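agent> step 3/5: call structure_predict on target 'NAD-dependent epimerase/dehydratase family protein' (Myceligenerans salitolerans).
agent> reason: downstream docking stage needs a structural representation; sequence fetched in step 2, passing through unchanged.
tool.input:
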Amino acid sequence: MSSQTYFPRVSVTRAVVTGGAGFVGSRLCEALVDSGAEVVCVDNLLTGAIENLGALRGRGALRFVRSDIAEDGFTSPAVRAALRPGVDLVMHLASPASPVDYLEHPLETLDVGSRGTRAALDLAQEHGARLVLASTSEVYGDPQVHPQREEYWGNVSSVGPRSVYDESKRFAEALVSGYRRTLGTDTGIVRIFNTYGPRMREHDGRVVPTFIRQALAGEPLTVAGDGSQTRSLCYVDDMVAGLLAFARSGHPGPMNLGNPHELTVRRIAEDVIDATGSRSRIDHIERPVDDPGMRCPDITLARTELGWEPGVTWPDGLSRTVGWFRRRGQEAA
Ligand code: NAD
Ligand code: UDP
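tool.output (status=ok):
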């Protein structure tokens, strides 16, 4: 089996989404159900929340099972029962994703990337299903090539604080590639670049929800360093459309998914202040260790192979996200 062999396109009737109660996973569960699929969401709620699946409550097409896939694999009686009718797609998103989260849960992050990924691969193999690994732009580390193409091997510290996430995802990619080559499993790897939107936790530590929370509270926005480092931010609906297109395509990846519109962190802070109409000032805090200096996806492969590209502009996505945070704040008051 060549690692580049395409499998046939997948028509999805029953999908498992690991990490389906998280920010991206919950939107993915909704999109799968909207497309007519039945979905089994397996999540231990480490960084996710059952409320994220609220829009699917009462729709019989979703089953939620609370389970730690690194500890229990897919062996608990509740999971086995939910999986009995079969599975044709496993979307493997379970993992802390925010730097604050993975630094708080370093061993859980390593476990879910290693043991959790192996369990998800075994599940796919058992059912003859396609497995899609939600990998990350962090596999490129602090990149020395810009923008990042899939061929770039990256610049990653194996012992720095971020390594628990970066190396866990790199190991997961290696595991997926090993199953594909050795067992012929239908696998795909997507490398997700910074994604933002409604349902991010206001305290998850990532830049967009942090700045919006601070701006709405009239607190200073905490820009790390001089704010000249860059990120390229993709609105969550675009990301979910890309994930679905990739899942159905049979493409092996790795494939970058993200929005190539690159912004400095300082510009992100200024735009959040404008979008919220806040009077907050900008404060500078220490840059985290190994914080990548620049990040921007080359999405030529996704454009060519999937016909996918992001459609939601940063001002539009930011305004939708600010609106969601405002409504949430009013509901909580
Ligand atoms: P998130 O933290 O909101 O969601 C992750 C979900 O995984 C949570 O619901 C969490 O409870 C669950 N989980 C964690 N460990 C688990 C375990 N052992 N068993 C079962 N469930 C477990 O994060 P997100 O932003 O939605 O990210 C989803 C995926 O996409 C992650 O794999 C992440 O690495 C990847 N990704 C996201 C981004 C981004 O910008 N959002 C960027 C790159 C990669
Ligand atoms: N960042 C910041 N202030 C914050 C949170 C993050 O300046 O309060 C910076 C962070 O140092 C990084 C960028 O924003 O340079 C993106 O950080 P995030 O945690 O969102 O994602 P990642 O580092 O994983 O890309």
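agent> step 4/5: record observation. The pocket of nicotinamide-adenine-dinucleotide (ligand 1) is lined by residues 18-19, 21-25, 42-48, 68-70, 93-97, 101, 112, 116, 134, 136, 192, 194-195 (CB under 6 Å).
agent> proceeding.
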